[in-house]
Amino acid sequence: LVQKIHSKVITSINFNNFGSSYITTGADYVVRVYDAAKNIETNVFSGFSSAVSEACFDHTEQLLFSGSLDKTAKLWSLRNNKLLNTFTAHESFIFSMCGNNSTHQIFTCGDDRCVKVWRDNGTFQQNLPHPNTVWDACVNHLNGDLLTACADTLMRVFSTKKELSNCDSIPLSP
Predict the structure, then answer these.
(1) In the 8-state DSSP scheme, what is residue 26?
(2) To pair with 132 at 20 to 30 A between CA atoms, which of 44, 56, 92, 155?
(3) DSSP string of 48-74?
């Protein structure tokens, strides 16, 4: 199957945890959600002023996070197709984002050398500075640790635990 799904470059594609849906983002400023079995579009989210760099489903499959080169991240409801929140604090492009449902936190990272920590209600919580561009981040849903991938070639672990063995640790506020 080959299918044109965006009018400009596709910038990311991600399945949900069950493989039943997937998300695409594009340089056309749009996020699209598809039913994987039927290969039909089920949701379209817009509202960015630049390319959408990435989107991902949350842990419960009810929310969608998306981030853009316009320096904003957005939280969407998949149930009613509504924008729940817009997050603005980055000084440059957002490359990646992820969420932690148990703490109701969203993490955005990008070209401004930091990871921003947000409450899912849009409240800015914490800044995690890095020495260079932060390309990606992910959350371990079993223990809440945040891993980041930085352009300085180092992976960093941020944890609510006081001590971690064999890795750098910077406290992450719960």
Answers:
(1) E
(2) 56
(3) -SS-EEEEEE-TTSSEEEEEETTSEEE
* C-beta atoms surrounding 60 within 10 Å: 10
Cα radius of gyration (the chain): 16
Q: How far apart are CA 57 and CA 55, in angstroms?
A: 7
SS3 of 13, please?
Answer: strand
For the whole model, what pTM was predicted? 0.81
| Residue 40 CA: distances (Å) to CA of 36, 59, 144 | 7, 22, 34
CA atoms within 13 A on the CB side of 25: 26
Burial (Cβ within 10 Å: 0-12, 13-18, ≥19) of residue 136: middle
Residues 75-85 as b/e (b if ≥16 CB within 10 A, e otherwise) read bbebeeeeeeb
pLDDT in tens, 55-97: 988 877 888 999 999 999 999 999 999 999 998 989 999 999 8
